[in-house]
Amino acid sequence: MGLFNRGLKSNVSTNGQPPPANGHLPEDGAMPLDDPEARPEQAVPEPPAPAPEQAAPEQAVPERASPPDSPADHAPRAETVARATSAPPANPAPPDHSDEDRISASDALAPTRRPGSSRPPGAALGDESERRAKIISFANQKGGVAKTTTTLNLAVAFAESGHNVLCVDLDPQGNLTMSQGIDPDKVEGSMYDVLVDHVPIREVIHEREIDIAVASIDLAGAEIAMSTKIGRERSLEKALKEVSGDYDFVCIDTPPSLGLLTVNALTASDKVIVPVQCEYLSMRGLVQLQNTMQMIRENLNPRVHIEGILPTMLDSRTVHAKEAVEILEENFGELVFKSRIRKAIKFAEAPVRGSSVLKYDPKGNAANYYRELAKEVLTNGAS
């Protein structure tokens, strides 16, 4: 019976297929799994080859959220565009570093000059290379020592030697102005307007024996009016810059004090001549003047110095006058001029006529005193 069943099962086919060789049928009709040789071979499909000229599409990779950028961040960089649009030359030429095109260190550091200006910015107003006039102040804080007489007559003596000379009257008394026949009370403009209101100095210059920038009584209030101004000590220096190229000498008559007007004169000057009356009290003022000049040199005008000390109103008949001159020479040595200005009535008479003593009495002794002084200044210290 068992053999019959085995033979019967071996003759039955499943789904029209021949029975398996071992005669066993799976319960679900599938092929038996215990015989690896009975498994049918399945064809593995090959992936299609990509097109030869078409690149595979890139898949978008999600990025982390970031703050919004400005439009400039998305613009192409200039250097990238420049590299893309311009190609470097095959053989670039080396840069030319010849000495002709190279600027020197001194030229690079030198201040530039404005067009039409012959003077570099910041140059001192008293630079000898930038102006022609020698500026001389006549100063002594003691009055009555012949400052005005010396200023006028020495200036006229310079003019007789062929020099162009300007006198500046800084004394509110206006004695220098009157000595040239000009009434200080009737002038339209004076040095007050130049120093306080910055009027050009040319507008207050009058032509007489020499050119003179006149004074008026208004100068008595100039120091108060200038006291609040910045750079008040340099007001005269700036005013003289305008005319310094027109003259060989500028002679400044100062008031009998060491106030702001005298400080302006010393700040603008190259040299100082100190008239000293041959008396003891007059010589005492020299110490104060020296102290003032030391402060001027340290703070305002390092070039100013005493050109000389001039003995004036000398009466050689008195022993006191001789002793005074000896004291001056003993204490100041070479600073004392060899010239002597002796007393003469012509010095009092000439201003009444509105002229210098050289014009009033050209052949007299008084005129010769200042001619000798002019020779000494021109020979020894004015160059």
Question: In short, what is this structure?
Answer:
The chain has 383 residues and is an alpha/beta fold. The protein has helices at 2-11, 71-74, 78-85, 105-109, 147-160, 175-178, 191-197, 222-226, 235-241, 260-268, 280-299, 319-332, 346-349, 357-360, 365-380; strands at residues 134-138, 165-169, 205-207, 211-213, 249-253, 271-277, 305-312.
Give an overview in words:
The chain is α/β, with parallel strands linked by helices and 383 residues long. It has a domain at 134-377: Rossmann fold (3-Layer(aba) Sandwich). It contains 15 helices and 7 strands. The protein has helices at 2-11, 71-74, 78-85, 105-109, 147-160, 175-178, 191-197, 222-226, 235-241, 260-268, 280-299, 319-332, 346-349, 357-360, 365-380, and strands at residues 134-138, 165-169, 205-207, 211-213, 249-253, 271-277, 305-312. Strands 3-4-2-5-1-6-7 form a 7-stranded mixed beta sheet, with helices on both faces. α5 packs across α15 (365-380) and α9 (235-241) crosses α10. The longest helix has 20 residues, at 280-299.
Cα(first) to Cα(last) distance is 162 Å
pLDDT averaged residue by residue? 77
Q: Please give the order of strands in the largest beta sheet.
A: 3-4-2-5-1-6-7
| General shape | globular
Weakly predicted, low-confidence segments: 1-16, 19-40, 54-68, 70-75, 80-86, 105-129
- Taken as a percent bin, the fraction of beta residues is 5-15%
Specify Rg, calculated over alpha carbons: 54 Å
Task: Assign the CATH topology of the domain at 134-377.
Answer: Rossmann fold
Secondary-structure element sequence? HHHHEHEHHEEHHEHEHEHHHH
